[in-house]
Amino acid sequence: MQGALLVAGTTSDAGKSVLVAGICRWLARQGVDVAPFKAQNMSNNSVVTLDGGEIGRAQALQAVACGLAPSVAFNPVLLKPGSDRTSQVVVHGRVDGSVSAMSYRERKPALLEIVTAGLARLRTQHDVVICEGAGSPAEINLRATDIANMGLARAGSLPTIVVGDIDRGGVLAHLFGTLAVLEPDDQALVAGFVVNKFRGDPALLEPGLAQLERLTGRPTLGVLPYATDLWIDAEDSLGHDGAVGRPAPPLGRDWLRVAVVRLPRVSNGTDVDALASEPGVSVRYVTAPSELVGADLVVLPGSKTTVSDLAWLRSSGLAVAVLAHARAGRPLLGICGGYQMLGGTIDDPHGVEAAPGRHAGLGLGEFDVVFDVDKHLGNPVGEALGETVAGYEIHHGRELRRGAAPLVTTADGAPEGLDVGNVLGTHWHGLLENDGFRRRVLERVAALTGRDFRVSTTTSFAAARTAQLDLLADLVEEHLDTAALRELIERGAPAGLRVVPPAGAP
């Protein structure tokens, strides 16, 4: 089997990332040499690859679904928003300046060459490449400089399927409209549709799907059900109700309640997914001081803009609530940007985030932070709370220690992070994915809060993630026309697909 496929979406968060992961896993389970590819991602959820670069977390997860180590080859361009109008640009895993929405357009022609060459190279290294679009191809105002949707599909002659989220409503109009606004040469590559997150009896949807095929000449290749057990890493958004995961009931009498502050520019918020994999651990994102009341553990997660998010923490009243929580002896954990907020000062002499200046931290740890121009990337290992741990680092801030007790001792003996009993902090992402370390943290939380909570000795976060990927593959196998998928991957889009004129066209 050889070929490629592009999964586009009617909107952001329509299900592209999970569908790509599911198709990749389905193929890999059949022995196919398959790899993921996303030409351009926009996300502050990223990981550090073994080849030393930075890519979107969704592509790292898709690589795992394929049985591959994450690589910069799977996501050559990553945009990390620092504000509503500017983003840091990461090319081949390394920072390559910042852009506004308008100035980015000027870079697109050169980036199109980079991503098309990267896709071509990947196709020589693997039998099948499953590509993920970005946003929606219906954003026709961006089509002239598109490098991730139909621009990529046209450059690589990629057959394309469009997925829509029926849970949002109007999915048939979204699917039809996405196709109808495309120019004819783009439409010629769109070969079918997928409906995502359907609840109820599929027979009720059949008349609509039949009408959609009559209108467009393209079949719906399957209807994926709403899977309540699916909590795999979110790429574009957090759960609408703020809840994370589907934890099993507690082993003791009490739940542990974790409140994760949803910072305006939160990055790598998926760090807390591992907590929600534990029985009896309820994890929820919060945005108001009142939501910290009764929390056993408060988490300050990573941030793309630490200084401005710290200012928001103060203006929202959450800083006062966080300090009161910590000073009452209740557990607090800061990760990366959230850890930097815990120190004495944050100095940005080069204006890495905004205007140069020094800013007061929360003062909960004896260390300061200075921002370096170059980003610190790494996959360190060490020891924390008596457990061997591994993680990854993505930050500009460098800690200047003034006697802070470390949380981690790196493999070369260097101190890292903060451990002052109820207040913990680290620059390392992924620490909570280490099962032994996570158990030690939860044991400490239970002891400090007096909860009757027992940690599971059998929970494996890696196994839980594997089970999620297998669930995605099962959904693909059971609910999609996999024979049609194979045909598209191997033979491309069928010739002579109907051109659908946009509404109002003569």
Descriptive overview:
The chain is α/β, with parallel strands linked by helices. It folds into two domains: 3-231 and 465-491, 3-Layer(aba) Sandwich (Rossmann fold); 252-455, Rossmann fold (3-Layer(aba) Sandwich), CATH 3.40.50. The protein has 14 helices and 29 strands. The strands form seven sheets. Strands 13-16-14-17-19-29-28 form a seven-stranded mixed beta sheet. Strands 2-9-1-10-11-12 form a six-stranded parallel beta sheet, sandwiched between helices. It has a four-stranded mixed beta sheet with strand order 3-6-7-8, with helices on one face. A hairpin with a 2-residue loop joins strand 7 (86-91) and strand 8 (94-100). The longest helix is centred in the first third of the chain and has 25 residues, at 101-125. It is globular, with a radius of gyration of 23 Å. The two termini are 42 Å apart. The relative contact order is 0.13. Residues 236-240 have low confidence and may be disordered. Belongs to the CobB/CobQ family. CobQ subfamily. Catalyzes amidations at positions B, D, E, and G on adenosylcobyrinic A,C-diamide. NH(2) groups are provided by glutamine, and one molecule of ATP is hydrogenolyzed for each amidation. Residues 257-436 form the CobB/CobQ-like glutamine amidotransferase domain.
